[in-house]
Amino acid sequence: MKKKVVIYREVPEKVVNTLMKNFEVSYFKNLHTNNYDEFIKELQHADGLLGASMKMDKELLDHAPQLKVISNISVGYDNLDLEELKNRGIIATNTPGVLNDTTADTIFGLLLATARRMTELDHYVKSGNWNGSKNEDLFGVDVHHKKLGIIGMGSIGQAIAKRAHFGFDMEILYYNRSRKKEAEEAFSATYCSLDELLTQSDFVCLMIPHTPETEKMIGERDFQLMKNSAIFINGSRGKNVDERALIKALQQKWILRAGLDVFEHEPVEKDNPLLTMPNVVTLPHIGSATKETREKMAMLAAENLSKALDGETPPNIIR
Ligand SMILES: NC(=O)C1=CN([C@@H]2O[C@H](COP(=O)(O)OP(=O)(O)OC[C@H]3O[C@@H](n4cnc5c(N)ncnc54)[C@H](OP(=O)(O)O)[C@@H]3O)[C@@H](O)[C@H]2O)C=CC1
Ligand SMILES: O=CC(=O)O
């Protein structure tokens, strides 16, 4: 009998077809409240689960008594309760590497858009307010030759540093759990303490995973340490930042602007003050969201899942 795989996120047809060759597949392309009960029913017989960002806690896992692998189509795995998975003997996998350049492009694009006020000025032109003025009230700030502080010099942090160093002649400071000699050599990055990074950087870019240790890692004190002219970019997870403190920092002008791909709650609440601030550029968590990269991620996730169900060691097992 074929093993059963449940897919709970839209993936390219190619991925569904590949999995269907070896497994019985239940595909929930659009998982909503109206088909959630059916999804839960399918979990009862699932050996493998493929998708992204759904909270996998005890309550959900109780519906999946024969589950052997959860394959995340993402690098981040803060949706998984690893301790609970370990207790149940369930393997977890993710998709690092294949999204580094795409995510770095998005986050650097967000940095540029925030520094040069691109979304604000786009709205200004399209709403017919441009009367020919090119006065100071339309000016942004330079990115090139400025100081970029990267918190989390991992794979994506380094891809951002590469763009900043070679493309924009920026000076790179970084703070990380361990020293990254390869980044120091390749991009002349300087390792420093978090406080040094916050006080010295013109741009502060957060690229660490969300863990109990990094929950609200950037808070009121950190924003107060930043320059009043600093621009804060979060491309990691919203929960790494104390969002109330960020709002206060922008309102009190402790910092100049923020560019955010991620929020404490996603989708972000409609009445979140960040959404009405002209000095904030927002994106709907689309760091890796290009057609090409999402296809690579889904293919890699399918490979991880297939290997785990075939009794082999998947290439991206989370330990
Ligand atoms: N916006 C989006 O769409 C996307 C967001 N992401 C987010 O970006 C994160 C990073 O991805 P990626 O670069 O691939 O991951 P990596 O694991 O390659 O890099 C993470 C880096 O963070 C460092 N780090 C971890 N914990 C701490 C800590 N407590 N203090 C200081 N440094 C720490 C790690 O240090 P060390 O090497 O010493 O362990 C590592 O260098 C993901 O976990 C995910 O949350 C990822 C993809 C897309
Ligand atoms: O947020 C995206 C990821 O891959 O992690």
UniProtKB/TrEMBL annotation:
Tell me where in this chain the D-isomer specific 2-hydroxyacid dehydrogenase catalytic domain is found. 5-318
Please state what the protein is called: 2-hydroxyacid dehydrogenase
Instruction: Name the UniProt key words of this record, in alphabetical order.
Output: Oxidoreductase
The molecular function terms in GO held by this entry are:
oxidoreductase activity
Taxonomic superkingdom? Bacteria
Source organism (scientific name): Metabacillus endolithicus
Q: What is its EC number?
A: 1.1.1.-
Q: One Pfam family, short name please?
A: 2-Hacid_dh_C
Give the matching SUPFAM superfamilies: Formate/glycerate dehydrogenase catalytic domain-like (SSF52283), NAD(P)-binding Rossmann-fold domains (SSF51735)
